[in-house]
Structure formats: C-alpha cells, structure tokens
Amino acid sequence: MTTQKTVLRALAGETLPTPPIWMMRQAGRYLPEYKATRAEAGDFLSLCYNSDLAAEVTLQPIRRYGFDAAIMFADILLLPQALGAKLWFVTGEGPRLSTITTADELKALKPADAIHDHLNPIYETLKILSRELPSETTLIGFAGAPWTVATYMIAGQGTPDQAPAHALKAENKAVFEGLLDLITEGTIDYLSKQIDAGAEVIKLFDSWAGSLKGDDFLNYAVKPAARIVAELKKRHPDTPIIAFPRGAGEEYVGLHDAIGADCIALDDGVTAEWAAANVQTGGCVQGNLKSSHMVTGGDALVSETRRIVDAFKGGPHIFNLGHGITPDADPENVQLMIDTVREVR
Ligand code: CP3
C-alpha cells in the first residue's frame, strides 16, 4: 500500500507502529473556534447546511491538532429531514422531530431517492473538504444506522431507553419495519453520494444498538448494517466502512464478518484487552478511551491511553474515544491524549 494516509492503511489491515488518531465530535462545543463559527451561522442546523462554514468547523480540529482523519460536519438527523420529517433543535435539550408511528405518517414521507436536493449542501461540504484537507488526512462521511435514526423518528426526540421505538416494534411491526426499510434505502443512496462527493471512508453510527437484545440485535442492528455495507461495496468496492454498534457488549464478537465492515468501532463498555482477544482478531478496530478523560485529564488520561495503545498494538487499530467528546472537555487534554498516542511526551 503506497498511501501516506494512515487511517486508510489501518483500515486495509495494516498494523502500524503508531495508531492513527481522530475523535468523535472532534468539531464541537469544547472548541472556542467552533463556538464562534456556530454563532456566525446562527444555529446548529444552519451550520450543517452552510457548506463553507461546515467545512470550516471540520477543518478547525485538523488545524489545531493534526488529527489523521476529518469527519465531515453534519448530523445523522439530516436524513429524516430530507425524507420529510420536521426537525429542529432546542438549545440545551437536543433534537426534536415530527413523529412517525402510523401507516399514514410513514406513507407521507418521501421516497428514498428524493432526498438529494435537500442534502446537496452536505455533498458540497465534502467537495470543499476534499480540496482543502492536508494530503495525509482521511475524509470520513457518515450516516446513522437505521435503528438509531428510527428511534429519533418514532419518539420525536432522544430517549434514554428508546421505549417508543421498542413499543412500535411490538405493537405495529409493519410500520416499524417499513420505516427501517425506508431509512435503509435512503442511507444507501445518501452514503453513495457522499462517496461520489469525496468521502474516503464511511462510518455508520448505531448509537442505540445496545438496547437491542438477541434476535432484535440481529434483525435490526446487524442485518440493516450488512445490507447497507453490501450495497455500498457493490457500488464502491474500494471505500472502507466503519460500523459502530455502540453498547453491543459481547455481541461485538464476529461483527466484522456479520456486517461485512472493514472496522468495528468500540465503545468504552468493553476493555481493550478483551476486545483485542475477541474482536480485533476479525480485523481493524477503533476506540475506545472513555470521553470523561478529556474532562479530567492528568495521569489517568495518560495511563489509560497507553494501556489502550498497548492492548491493540498487535493488530490494526485506529485510536479514538468510546463516544463523542463532551462540551465540558478541556482542549489541552485532547493534546495530551494525542501526544501520548504519538509518544512525543
Ligand atoms: O463527530 C463530528 O465531529 C461530526 C459531526 C457529528 C455531529 N453529530 C455534530 C453534532 C456527528 C458524526 C454526529 C452524529 C450524531 N448525531 C449521532 C451519533 C453519534 C452519537 O453521538 O451517538 C447522534 C445520536 C446525533 C443526534 C444528535 N445531534 C443529538 C442527540 C444532538 C444533541 C446532543 C448534543 O450533544 O447537543 C445533536 C447535536 C449535535 N450534533 C452537536 C454537534 C456538534 C451539538 C450541537 C451544537 O453545536 O449545539
């Protein structure tokens, strides 16, 4: 492999002396420059749909820290909006959507291939980033996995236990599965266009996969992800895919093969030692430092970072957090984590 992009090399299965590193939510409210650009854009959704400013906030953590990958600035809830759901963000609370719980509401959504006019600014953001990123930085596109996106569309907001989605699954399986199918089809089209626009890697976020148990995990987390991966691999065989079924626990075992993903991203609910023995044997893994270390820093941050690098050093690994960095994180702790991974202090 001749590429100098270390993230692509790890995703191709190479064991590197130093793991490449990037961070979920690396463009975000812990950075003063992000807050300034967000204020300039007006609100969060205006920032997502302003291609120049979305590219700018994507580049901010690359300039400040030299991460090995940039993840385009957008949100997993833009797809439901493109499908016709209403979406808004309540400051300090999070997203709100018009709900889909009946056959009529499902029927009123747009077909999966009618999303692109709405999502065009996202493709434009990727085109700008392909031009402007340093040559060693890998550009990541993303979408939410169908179950996670459906949990927001059914409840109309984030929920601690995804109860409304579980209820619809139990009470009206046809609507539930119809919605999952529509999201799956839309996600395939959306991600395919992201690759056309310059995304070099795709990440599928299944933030609430952990609330699916047994057959439900197989049917509603693994199978939709496998269908998305299979279709993308048909259209774009050279684009690696990272799957993140957060909270999968022991279900992480065997997922590279079951989903067909090039990399499985790990949350911090599993230890790196366990994952090295049970998950990394299937291929590249990403993760999994607890985000709270970015708030607390110090010796614990350094020793945990070293422990994770050490545990995964026998195989392909991309260093990351176990979930997104939080707004109360200290930007200096991010530098300390990077310096520790790269062994420069
Ligand atoms: O990682 C990155 O830097 C890229 C951009 C990105 C955002 N959201 C920006 C964002 C990505 C990849 C996402 C994914 C996303 N969005 C997920 C999956 C990953 C995860 O965190 O589990 C989910 C569930 C969402 C939905 C969402 N978006 C919620 C629940 C919230 C509110 C919670 C919060 O942190 O405020 C958002 C808002 C959001 N998405 C912000 C950012 C930077 C904060 C918005 C702001 O600036 O006020």
Automatic annotation (TrEMBL):
PANTHER family associated with the record: METHYLTETRAHYDROFOLATE:HOMOCYSTEINE METHYLTRANSFERASE RELATED (PTHR21091), UROPORPHYRINOGEN DECARBOXYLASE (PTHR21091:SF169)
Chain residues that bind substrate: 25-29, 75, 152, 207, 323
A GO molecular-function annotation: uroporphyrinogen decarboxylase activity
Task performed by this protein: Catalyzes the decarboxylation of four acetate groups of uroporphyrinogen-III to yield coproporphyrinogen-III.
Catalyses which reaction(s): uroporphyrinogen III + 4 H(+) = coproporphyrinogen III + 4 CO2
Keyword Glycoprotein included in the entry's annotation: no
Residue ranges of every copy of the Uroporphyrinogen decarboxylase (URO-D) domain listed in the record: 20-29, 140-156
Keyword list, A-Z: Cytoplasm, Decarboxylase, Lyase, Porphyrin biosynthesis
Protein name as it appears in the record: Uroporphyrinogen decarboxylase
Pathway of action: Porphyrin-containing compound metabolism; protoporphyrin-IX biosynthesis; coproporphyrinogen-III from 5-aminolevulinate: step 4/4
Subcellular location: Cytoplasm
NCBIfam families named among the record's database cross-references: hemE
Family annotation (InterPro entries): UROD/MetE-like_sf, Uroporphyrinogen_deCO2ase_HemE, Uroporphyrinogen_deCOase
Matches recorded under Pfam families: URO-D
Coiled-coil intervals: none
Taxonomy, superkingdom: Bacteria
Oligomeric form and interacting partners: Homodimer.
Species of origin: Octadecabacter dasysiphoniae
Record-stated family: Belongs to the uroporphyrinogen decarboxylase family.
Site (Transition state stabilizer) residue list: 75
Coarse class of the protein's main subcellular location: cytoplasm
EC number: 4.1.1.37
